[in-house]
Specification:
CATH topology of chain A: Udp-n-acetylmuramoylalanyl-d-glutamate--2,6- Diaminopimelate Ligase, Chain: A, domain 1
Distance between the termini of chain B: 29 Å
Shape of chain A: globular
Oligomer: heterodimer
Number of strands of chain B: 11
Radius of gyration of chain A: 13 Å
Bound molecules: adenosine-5'-triphosphate, magnesium ion
CATH class of chain A: Alpha Beta
Largest interface: A-B, 30 and 42 residues
Number of domains of chain A: 1
Largest sheet of chain B: 6 strands, antiparallel
Helix content of chain A: 25-40%
Number of helices of chain A: 5
Helix content of chain B: 25-40%
CATH superfamily of chain A: HprK N-terminal domain-like
Shape of chain B: elongated
Chain lengths: 119, 316
């Protein structure tokens, strides 16, 4: 799955843009330790966390990118960290479940209904 | 700020870093009044004039003033726009764009992509903003790099961190630092990851659960990475219980910040090759972790990258 395809499918707004890359998997969690406990490789994170810790968590597990769900706007500090550490960061209005559903569609290439709403 | 830093930045950063992709455009065949209105609403000093995907000109406040002076009420944009547009390529270094601003005196320049399509607008303000962003990113990275004290003890690298309690914002700083040091020493990503995760979890436990914070000491040599983590309380009531995945005493407030899954200690044990924990209610907690470094965990003696050409401090 290409990052750009994921971002497009999630209608996400990129906050930190870097060259496109391919990911094999997605880890979705709001609690950072749940993300730190994953065995996945080459994955991107879906989370409701917008604090700088979210970026450091991504670094610790070597996640390839972070998508914030529920349209939460990460503070400057988070964007700054993502930029300085080269972690692509984007925000989608979709809630976690919908975002996972859409990400699954991109990941496994399954046809999806496109009528997901955010409310 | 040193001159050389900015100088280096404007050479390294590309136009694409500093351009705004959130710009307004106007078609050539609408009234100047429309252009005037759009510019006022967007508080833009000018706009690319586009027909479909194609940029056919640019219209600026100056054109609007001239049009107003001429009293030309019903004129179309195409009658007033500048057709011969000075543009920049998004791959150019910032210096090129800055040079053009100086030379032309224009307040904005449309940015074209590799295919010659309009993809952004760059202004002195957007350049300044990108430079400020970049400088603060550099300062943040520096802050993190300096969050611990590193010393060499023979061939052993020792990094020490004092982790204050309840400083949630800084969670992960020690982890980032340790990971960076391992990366610089050529340790493979898999080992970096195990150590970074364990450090991260130890760090957050000091921040969340201790009364006065604690200390992390990392010892790194060719054969192993060792972490010792200690604090002065409150100590763990029932260690066995604390080790159960999902067990957590974190408050709702702390959970809102993303901690308290109860996965820290079990995950630390999983990541480390040797794991020891001692704790006594009332006196504190002590952890010792060891990570074996096999020959496969290290890349052939690669010095820390100092090529200076890298885009950012990439440490994964
Ligand atoms: N240094 C410590 N001092 C006192 N209690 C601790 C310490 N470390 C852990 N604990 C106790 O052990 C429990 C389990 O710790 P663990 O790291 O597994 O989970 P957590 O910190 O609650 O959540 P998570 O690590 O998933 O964010 C904690 O909830 C806390 O009660
Ligand atoms: Mg913990």
């Amino acid at each position: 799955m290409w990052w750009s395809d994921l971002i497009a499918a999630l209608h996400a707004t990129p906050l930190v843009e870097l060259p496109d890359f391919e990911a094999q998997s997605v880890a979705a969690a709001d609690l950072l330790s749940d993300i730190l406990a994953t065995d996945k490789e080459d994955f991107v994170i879906l989370t409701g966390q917008i604090s700088p810790q979210a970026i450091r968590t991504a670094l610790a597990v070597g996640a390839l990118g972070v998508v914030v769900v529920r349209g939460k706007q990460p503070p400057q500090e988070t964007v700054r960290l993502a930029k300085s550490y080269g972690v692509p960061l984007a925000v989608t209005e979709l809630r976690m479940f919908e975002a996972c559903y859409v990400a699954g569609g991109v990941l496994w290439n399954t046809p999806l209904s496109t009528s997901l709403s955010t409310d | 700020m040193e001159y050389s830093v900015i100088h280096e930045l404007v050479h390294r950063l590309k136009v694409s870093h500093a351009m705004s992709t959130d710009y307004v455009t106007v078609p050539p065949n609408v009234a100047m009044r429309v252009a005037q209105q759009r510019m006022r609403e967007a508080r833009a000093g000018g706009m690319p004039v586009t027909r479909g995907d194609e940029m056919v000109g640019i219209v600026t406040t100056e054109d609007v003033i001239l049009w107003l002076d001429g009293g030309g009420r019903d004129d179309l944009v195409e009658q007033w726009m500048t057709r011969d547009v000075v543009t920049v390529d998004r791959r150019w270094p910032l210096t090129e764009a800055m040079g053009l601003f100086g030379k032309t005196g224009f307040g904005r320049l449309p940015v074209l992509d590799e295919g010659g399509q309009l993809c952004g607008v760059i202004t002195p303000e957007s350049i300044l903003k990108s430079l400020l962003d970049e400088v603060s990113a550099m300062l943040t990275a520096k802050d993190e790099a300096e969050s611990g004290r590193a010393t060499m003890d023979g061939s052993v690298l020792r990094i020490e961190f004092d982790v204050p309690a309840r400083d949630y914002e800084r969670a992960g700083m020690a982890s980032v630092r340790v990971k960076r040091e391992l990366a610089a020493r050529g340790f493979k990503p898999q080992l970096q990851r195990r150590v970074a995760i364990a450090t991260h979890e130890c760090e957050t436990n000091l921040i969340i659960h201790t009364t006065e914070g604690g200390r992390i000491v990392a010892l790194v040599d060719d054969g192993s990475v060792k972490l010792t983590v200690s604090d002065k309380g409150p100590g763990i009531e029932d260690i066995e219980r604390a080790m159960v995945p999902g067990f957590s005493t974190a408050s709702d407030f702390v959970r809102d910040l993303g901690f308290g899954a109860g996965m820290g200690l079990p995950n630390i044990r999983k990541c480390a090759d040797r794991f020891e924990i001692r704790s006594k209610r009332g006196s504190g907690t002590w952890l010792h972790l060891e990570f074996d470094v096999t020959p496969g965990d290290r890349a052939p003696a690669d010095p820390p990258s100092t090529d200076g050409g890298g885009e950012e401090v990439r440490i994964r």
